Amino acid sequence: MSSLTKSIPVRDRLLLAGAQLMDEAGGPDVSTRAVCDLAGVQAPTLYHHFGSKEGLLDAVVSHGLRRFLDEHRDDADRDQVDPIEQIRQGWDIHVRFGLAHPAFYAHIYGHVERGKQCGVVADVELMLLQALEPAARRGRLSVTPAAAAAQILAASSGVVLALITDPSDQPDMSLSERVRDAMLSSITVPAASRAGPGRRRSTTAAQPTPASAAVALAAALDDDSPALTTTENALLRDWLTRIANPQPGRR
Length: 251
Hints:
Number of strands: 0
Number of helices: 11
Low-confidence stretches: 193-205
């Protein structure tokens, strides 16, 4: 196996080598030596850039996911698009990514240890939080963005693993659609209908709930607002979190 061209920056060569070997192996079972040989570097160089082989593979998967999202996302004006529709589209792209790169998913979930989260999962949660913030500010979430991100990630990754391991030639993609819509229904508030030309605003439009209002206010709060002290801001956020995530039996 020939090394990658030396004209490519070292870090990029390591990422490309890791991705190529993971695809060829069908999973994360690639050796540090193989990665270094393909990248044309010594092992200390890999450790300098990524800390460990696991750190490199985490970076490979995160980089691949971000590129996939960038290539498939809709570049329409996001301020004019329903934020829940953006989340729905993001779910679908995530599922397509998993099916297109099962070896990457094997790295994320192939060696699960209690209490130890793959670095890629943290990156995905951060991306989800960023996508959920607009929905929270518009009062469209019935739970906090953090809670919504955790639930979406758990459900979508379960769907991807189920579809990857489906023994049929044509996995049932409607499974993803059903789980996606059920999940979104459980964490969102329907948008108020808007009156079109010659039409009256619907009287059945959904009204904000205490939870969605608390989530929206928490998302809109400015940590540096002069209206509240640091202590008051923290206390208000705590109250809003309790309203958004009521605990059974608490009085």
